[in-house]
Amino acid sequence: SADIALLNQRIGDALLESGRANVGVTEFDGVTCLKMTLLNPTVTLEDIKVLLTLVETTAQQLV
């Protein structure tokens, strides 16, 4: 929906502007989505969990 698309864009923008994370925003099959590109070979599952929690917290703050 348009609401989810806008929220995803705002989450990506907020995280980038805060300097806390760079979560990409892309369109897939007509839906605006968040994406992670993992370039660091030492990233751990715990790192990803922390990032997902940050995305969730940011979303809750924006709604």
Topology, element by element:
Blueprint: H1 2-18, E1 24-28, E2 31-35, H2 45-62
Antiparallel strand pairs: 1-2
What's the number of extended β-strand segments? 2
- Overall number of domains: 1
Which residue ranges are poorly predicted, with pLDDT under 50 across at least 5 consecutive positions?
none
Which of globular, elongated, flat, extended, rod-shaped describes the shape? globular
Helix content percent band: 55-70%
Quick structural overview:
With 63 residues, the protein is of the alpha+beta class. Helices cover 56% and strands 16% of the residues. The mean pLDDT is 95.
What does this structure look like?
By secondary structure, the protein is of the alpha+beta class. It has one domain (2-62): Aspartate Aminotransferase, domain 1 (Alpha-Beta Complex). It has helices at residues 2-18, 45-62, and strands at 24-28, 31-35. Strands 1-2 form a two-stranded antiparallel sheet. Helix 1 crosses helix 2 (45-62). It is globular and about 35 Å long. The two termini are 15 Å apart. InterPro entries: PyrdxlP-dep_Trfase. GO terms for molecular function: transaminase activity. It comes from Enterobacter agglomerans (Erwinia herbicola).
